[in-house]
Amino acid sequence: MKLHFLKKRHLGLYEIEKKCRMNLTSLISLAFVFAVAFSGLATARATEPIEIDSESGAEIYVLGGDARPADNIYGEQPYGDATGRRIAIRYYPLPNKPGGINILDLEDGSNREIFSGSPPFPAFHAWGEWLYYAQTVEGRKMLRRCNYLTLEVENVAELPPDRGSYSYGTVSPDNRYYAVSVRPPKGGSSQVHLLDMRKNRWSVLLDKPGYYPKHEQFSRDGRNRVLIQLNKMPDAKVVCFSRTEYDGKQWSHAHPYLTANNKWLVFGARRNAHPQVHGAKLKDGWLQTF
Question: pTM, whole model, 2 decimals?
Fold first, then answer.
């Protein structure tokens, strides 16, 4: 949108120049205006890496650098699109600037805000077309989604308050089902509720008293099974060190994940007391060394 607008302005400048033969002072003034306008298109990813890992050769960049603390959310099911080009970043508010969620383009460096305010945890929906998240709209809590490429935002379904307090949940790869941990209005153990978004029909998927279901996520094998992860580390190689300074808060967790094209390892790190999202640009062929 900005590029298109600036092209129109550039054509307008050409026409004005042609018709009016503006003096040098006017041209300098307009050049300054254009410089300011184009400064808003500055890349949100540093053009030079801040570090190169000595073992893997991975180049480490700050992604979406900002004065606000930031994180890459969770790593179990990455918040990135199917092309590997765009990822989501959460920003925490400062006294003079609200928090929000942005979509960062790893190729052109653009960083566009899609949500302003206290940033929610989006639903798990790895490498998909849409980013799903809950937001209160005109007094109603809604499940919404934003298209990674077009940035179109739309309402998906209402989250009825009588069911309880909702966690972030997970959306199936076919965009049909939403499974979410819900704490009952009167308290007690949480349950996992399931919404068939095609039929707008709710049901209880899991009710196990004494347990707190969390990090629910759909499998990506086409069977739409809802999983709770139990991880066992395989034989591993070091990509890089996050160098995060742990302070007990969410933004200091690394939560690493790979983009869909296996070119970037995205992770959060609190370096020099400032949490930001970082990316390790993997060396070509490095994954094949496993």
Answer: 0.69
